[in-house]
């Protein structure tokens, strides 16, 4: 049966490791989970495991988990810093984008290298709003697993600049203003 000192010790360990993990994750940066590279996700899982061991294994000193969490956080922070200063390091640790479509044509060797089927690519394109490969000038599989699509010129969305509208004006306000002008300034 658990005694109050045991429960309080467990609560203290849990709270301390929670706060430490929170601080380490905040220091690691603000990228969302969907933008994490596979290695970043592995580090998050390993830190989570270190926290779990520290909480569950009350027979082991909490300092073991604290040291592991701080070390992993420092290594990840250092790697991220190095990646911002040294492009080659980033290529090694994060990978580089792979061109899957060029000029509306699938790049079969690149797709095989990335283990991506035509069906997978078709789904990813539809999620980006493109139905046909021919609508895409270049599509890259980013190191995060996200598909970046550059459409052919005819498929680009129309912007306010394309319409010659002044900056800060919406299409509705432009139409309303032009209608007022056509009516001679009356509302």
Give me the secondary-structure topology.
Elements: H1 4-28, H2 38-56, H3 62-85, H4 87-94, E1 98-102, E2 105-106, H5 108-113, H6 118-127, E3 136-141, E4 147-151, H7 171-182
Antiparallel strand pairs: 1-2, 1-3, 3-4
Helix pairs in contact: 1-2, 1-3, 2-3, 3-4
How many domains?
3
- From the alpha carbons, calculate the radius of gyration and give it in angstroms: 26 Å
Number of helical segments with 4 or more residues? 7
- The backbone outline, from C-alpha atoms, is elongated
> Strand-and-helix sequence, N→C?
HHHHEEHHEEH
Quote the distance from N terminus to C terminus: 79 Å
Strand arrangement in the largest pleated sheet: 2-1-3-4
Beta content comes to 5-15%
Low-confidence stretches: none
Share in helix = 55-70%
Per DSSP E runs of 2 or more residues, the count of β-strands stands at 4
Mean pLDDT, as a whole number? 85
Reported for the largest beta sheet, the result is:
4 strands, antiparallel
In terms of structural class, how would the helical and strand content be classed?
A: alpha+beta
Description:
- This protein has 187 residues and is α+β, with helices and mostly antiparallel strands.
- It has three domains: 4-93; 98-155, CRO Repressor (2-Layer Sandwich), CATH 3.30.240.20; 159-187, no CATH class.
- The chain is 56% helix and 10% strand.
- The chain is built from seven helices and four strands, in the order H-H-H-H-E-E-H-H-E-E-H.
- The chain has helices at 4-28, 38-56, 62-85, 87-94, 108-113, 118-127, 171-182; strands spanning 98-102, 105-106, 136-141, 147-151.
- Strands 2-1-3-4 form a four-stranded antiparallel β-sheet.
- Helix 1 runs parallel beside helix 3 (62-85), helix 2 runs antiparallel to helix 3 (62-85) and helix 3 (62-85) packs across helix 4.
- The longest helix is centred in the first third of the chain and has 25 residues, at 4-28.
- The mean pLDDT is 85.
